[in-house]
Amino acid sequence: MVSLAPTVTAPAGHVFLTPQQQRAIAEGVRTRDGPAEEELVRLFSARLGVMARNRLRDPEAARDLTQDVLLTVIRALRNGQLRDPERLTGFVYGTARNLINNHLRTRARLPAEEPLDDDLLVTCTPDLLEEAERGTLARRALSALDATSRTILTLTLVEDLKPAAIAKQLGLTPEVVRTRKSRALRQIAERFKALSRI
Q1: Fewest CB within 10 angstroms: 1, 57, 106, 138, which?
Q2: Domain containing residue 140
Q3: Does the pTM of the predicted model rise above 0.70?
């Protein structure tokens, strides 16, 4: 059996495996051997993490990408996609370069994110469509009233006049204005309810 321990560790942190060691790990992963997969992860995860952090400048994205590289390599090895198992190290680093470059290209296409300034935050306004619909319903309900009742409601709600002032303008008594206003509001509420169910 070939030892999986690296023969030489380079100063830059790369592990140099003999061709026989690379073949043993690649073949082990291809046959879904748990220890071989663990050895692959142990040997390359830290080095891939450094590579990803240096390129991405984002520790969290680097961690995610390191996991993606390892999963991609393991899947490829299980599917027998490595033609020369003695070149496992180059395959791992080549896969990492490709996934990092893809990530950088995708990130470059995204619009730049800028934090919102607190001064730009606006209070939530009601939905304009809903507001327009309520206005339409109110106009329909008003149109069902007789002209005098519409006038009384308009002078009350829009002009903010009291029953005595409205009575004077329309030549009615304040009590008649109050009664007609009350009846008109009740009719509008019922009409509004009926229209909103449609």
Answers
A1: 1
A2: 128-197
A3: no
